[in-house]
Design a protein that fits this description.
This protein is of the alpha+beta class and 156 residues long. It has a single domain, classed as Nonspecific Lipid-transfer Protein, Chain A (2-Layer Sandwich). The chain is 45% helix and 18% strand. It contains eight helices and five strands; from the N terminus they run H-H-H-E-E-E-E-H-H-E-H-H-H. It has a five-stranded mixed sheet. The two termini are 13 Å apart.
């Protein structure tokens, strides 16, 4: 059985309590954004091929974790992903609850299902959103987890 299937079969339905959202809105967004951009940069060339990402150059993104009160803003350039904290609007914003984003990352649910069930929303450049969706669909999470044994033991 694939590791992603084992992990996703154990992902319970949940929504973070409202207090998380209220507190999360007041916390600095830099630490989780740095964690995200670092993970994305580590994946570049390994699991995320650079060539299909060329249309992302110069684009700004935001991932909103609605029930956590988080808004992770970042951009992509020739050197990779980096946090973005200016007032410029994101070219693409993806919003969902924490559980739905985890389900998307573990391939328990696909972006189309989440989108059509109104559990995932996108705002901005729809072509860019489609490119991001297709790129994420091509990433094989079992390969990622098998190369990170400490993470695999923690999640298993």
């Amino acid at each position: 059985m694939k590791l992603a299937a084992r992990l996703s079969s154990r992902l319970p339905q949940f929504t973070l309590p409202a207090i998380f959202g209220r507190v999360g809105q007041r916390l600095p967004q830099l630490p989780p954004t740095l964690a995200l951009t670092t993970a994305l940069n580590l994946a570049l060339g390994r699991w995320l091929p650079r060539e299909p990402l060329s249309p992302l150059l110069g684009k700004r993104f935001a991932i909103r974790v609605k029930d956590a009160g988080m808004s992770l803003r970042f951009a992509y350039n020739e050197r990779g992903f980096h946090p973005s904290f200016d007032a410029t609007a994101a070219d693409l914003t993806i919003s969902a609850k924490a559980r739905d984003l985890l389900a998307l990352m573990t391939h328990e649910e696909d972006a189309d299902s989440l989108f059509f069930n109104r559990r995932l929303t996108t705002e901005g450049d729809t072509d860019l959103g489609l490119l991001v969706k297709n790129t994420l669909d091509a990433v094989e999470l079992p390969d990622l987890l098998s190369s990170l044994p400490g993470l695999r033991r923690f999640l298993a």
